[in-house]
Amino acid sequence: MKRRTAEPYKIKSVETLSMLSFEERKESLERAGYNTFLINSEDVYIDLLTDSGTTAMSDAQWGALMTGDEAYAGSKSWKRLEHAVREVYGYKYVLPTHQGRGAENILSQLKIKEGDYVPGNMYFTTTRAHQEMNGATFVDIIIDEAHDPSIDLPFKGNVDLDKLRALIDEVGAEKIPYVCLAVTVNLAGGQPVSMQNMKEVYELCKSHHIDVMFDATRCVENAYFIKERENGYSDRSVADILKEMMSYSDGCTMSGKKDCLVNIGGFLAMNDEDLYIRSRELVVVYEGMPSYGGMAGRDMEAMAIGIREAVDDHYIEHRIGQVRYLGQQLLDAGIPIVQPIGGHAVFLDAKAFLPHLKQEEFPAQALAAALYLDSGVRSMERGIVSAGRDIKTGEHNRPNLELVRLTIPRRVYTNNHMDVVVDSILALYEKRDTICGLTMAYEPPTLRFFNARFAPLSDSGELISEENKKVNA
Fold first, then answer.
1. CA-based, 20 to 30 A from 23: which of 167, 301, 341, 407?
2. Is the pTM of this model over 0.85?
3. CA atoms of 77 and 71, how far apart (whole Å)
4. Which of the 8 DSSP states describes residue 16?
5. CB count, 10 Å around CB of 105?
6. Which positions are annotated as active-site residues?
7. What are the residue ranges spanned by the domains of the chain?
8. What average pLDDT values come out for the chain (473 residues) when binned by 10 residues?
9. Which CATH number applies to 22-51+313-466: 3.90.230.10, 3.40.50.1240, 3.20.20.70, 3.90.1150.10?
10. What distance in Å separates the CA atoms of residue 35 and residue 449, rounded to the nearest whole number?
């Protein structure tokens, strides 16, 4: 019998959670326009909206806040962060940014010109937005299996090398400023990329003088999956695997709010000195001095420690294990989720969960709203709403995956909280045919999932009701 383990930490401080009544949750949801992003956090019981910036920092990180050097230039705290990035990730040059999208903005402006193509292993919302705003077309080169939530493969985030070769042959290497390789792939369900695939992508790109830039936001989780699933890595430390991973890239953008275990901050790293010099100038324009880049000294101190804490094998084993604890209970109960269970979240398959709803009725958005209404658990839509519209035709982008993301913050909740989430989802699944679709009452022009507002399509105006059975029959 496999012995059970507990969290590799103990709790020093607690925060009281809100436990609203059904009617109070209903009022909160209506005020938010059925968009979970617009619900006030004080109205949320268990917040699984995102793992970005929601980490519980360690005592070492909290202590380091008091040592932050807030000098405008030449901060000692920056030197400590720079050293940590170089030591753990292996890049030569590092520039701080206020968060990951600050790094994406600078990279996109410097590398992309009008008419370029940026291939990647599935889009991410803000990443693609920066690429498109600078004149590029995103091209999805992930393996086909990643678009099917029911297929269980160990490295579902892999690049399809034939797709990449075909794009190079079609548009020419000079039209591809870099390949954007996400490790792991968020919108595919937190799926990892194998070391072999990274190496093959890098070698192919080098033969065509194309850079490889990682979206390294959850790279430590990817390294753990390699240790667990790829031949030849089981006896190596996560830190060692991570260092090899990064060697198959020319640089990365990093949101420190995930695998760096902090609440704010990020960086842009690279090995090319010319790109570093040009990037440094834009950091001054958009972020701040190259020695703080939008972060306070105390933030940089906490990140420098978090970078090292994240590659502790015991920490990351528990991190992945808690996500599995939630996902496996749902699988055992017959709930449709993305398989295999990913690194940072469990993704409900809203198409299979609510088959009576058409995609233009926003089933993932409706399911996320219903989950909050049922239990006060906040989650996130990752489907047609997040995919936005085609910049040329104005039509909805229609991803194959219509998902609700249950994103687990790092070191925040216990498995008892996960049990509450499971109970709510099981209750909704039993009455799934009473959940109606939504119409979009307000649509922002860009990244609409953040601020869009919705309304139920039922005659009664209720999101969950017996009357919905008639409406959706």
1. 407
2. yes
3. 9
4. P
5. 21
6. 72, 124-125, 215, 258, 382, 449
7. 22-51+313-466, 59-309
8. 86 93 98 98 98 97 97 96 98 98 97 98 90 96 97 98 98 98 95 98 98 98 98 98 98 98 98 98 96 96 98 97 98 98 97 97 98 98 93 92 97 97 98 97 94 95 76 40
9. 3.90.1150.10
10. 8
